[in-house]
Amino acid sequence: MTAIHDLLKRLWQGYSQMNPQAESIYRFLTERGEKVVNDHIALRTFDDPRVGIEVLSAGFLAGGYRAGDEYSFTEKKLAARHYEPPDVSLPKVFISELKLADFSENLRSLVGRLLDQVPEQTWTRSDLAVIGRPWSLSHDEYLALAEESEYAAWMAAFGFQANHFTVLVNALATFDGLESFNACLKQAGYQLNASGGEIKGSPEVCLEQSSTLADRVSVDFSDSVQTIPGCYYEFARRYPLPDGSLFGGFVARSADKIFESTNRR
Ligand code: NI
Fold it and tell me: Which of 17, 90, 225, 264 is the most exposed place for a label (fewest CB within 10 A)?
């Protein structure tokens, strides 16, 4: 197994362990006889030069991934870039980063204190994407971050690991679209993120997406153990471009609402 296959495998292991609902949906689909194809893996970070997209993407670029399009999320103060895999059997990688300069002095110094706890050599690890949280923080610090940015709070609590995996609905044989897929999941008892409607996007923008609401997971803060939203599972249906090839990018307006799947409710 090459380094990149190992990295992707570890991303799934960490993600599915922390997010039993993903494992359970995955099993639900394979028991129907489906072969689950992963469209993309999403990772989060801060735009501090120590850990920004450039740094977090290094392990994927070394594994043959190529930089794709860039995206901007004004309201959530995020920038993002997607990475194309070296072969079509591997998922795309979508990395977003929080634009710290757009936040208060308080948030910036809090995030700075987290990053300052980490030895410099950690940032050059080729498996940085799966190391988890390399700093400690209190539950109050988590809440202070959440007040300004749910994304910042999630990142502070979980660190480096997959935020979500994404089932490519096109590749499923027993569903004719995202609507019937969603209906089936709900009937099986899974809760979907309804912010902005269950289905984000449309055939016109060549991409439809939906997602579960994040599982609540137990997190060790420096002063207490708390239950907070963890990861979610995403579902995407891609449509062909006028030239007949399947749209391979992302739609910022849709992703904007999907980010809310990890909000505290
Ligand atoms: Ni996604």
Answer: 225
Continuous H helices in 165-263: 178-187, 252-258
Cα(231) to centroid(ligand 1), Å: 11
Tell me the CA–centroid distance for residue 237 and ligand 1, in Å.
Answer: 11
Q: Ligand 1 center to residue 41 CA distance, Å?
A: 7
- The tokens of 31 are what? 């028991």
Eight-class DSSP state of 163? S
Question: Per-domain residue ranges for the chain?
Answer: 3-262
Cα 20 to ligand 1 centroid, rounded to whole Å: 18
pLDDT digits (tens, 9 = 90+) for 41-89: 999 999 999 999 999 999 999 999 999 999 999 999 999 999 999 999 9
Rounded distance, CA 205 to CA 65, Å? Answer: 25
> How far away, in angstroms, is 164 Cα from ligand 1 center?
7
Q: How far is the CA of 264 from the centre of ligand 1 (A)?
A: 19
Q: How many angstroms is it from 111 CA to the middle of ligand 1?
A: 24
223 C-alpha to ligand 1 centroid (Å): 32
Could you tell me the maximum CA-CA distance found in the chain, to the nearest angstrom? Answer: 56
Question: Does the model's pTM come out above 0.90?
Answer: yes
Q: Which of 233, 228, 232, 234 is nearest to 216 (CA)?
A: 228
Instruction: Supply φ then ψ for residue 206, to 5 degrees.
Output: 70, 15
Instruction: Tell me the CATH class for 3-262.
Output: alpha beta
Q: Per-residue pLDDT tens for 189-231?
A: 999 999 889 999 999 999 999 999 998 999 999 999 999 999 9
